Fold this protein.
Amino acid sequence: MGQVIYAQGIARKFWTVGGAIALGISVWAMHFVAMLAYQLPIPISYNFEIVLPSMVVAIAFAGLGCSSSVAYR
């Protein structure tokens, strides 16, 4: 978030959104890979209609965190 401090106007919004997307996908991918590695005694399958919205939720909450941290600077 270092560039956001120095950016102004529309560039600040782009840096915030870009940071939120990068952070959200990173957190989501880490948790998704961990769930793939988790071994259970029952068969598990993943539904694309549920997996994709979970990524959107991760990006949205990362955006909330990024925008709130930028607002106080």
Remarks:
- Residues 4 and 15 are 6 Å apart (CA to CA).
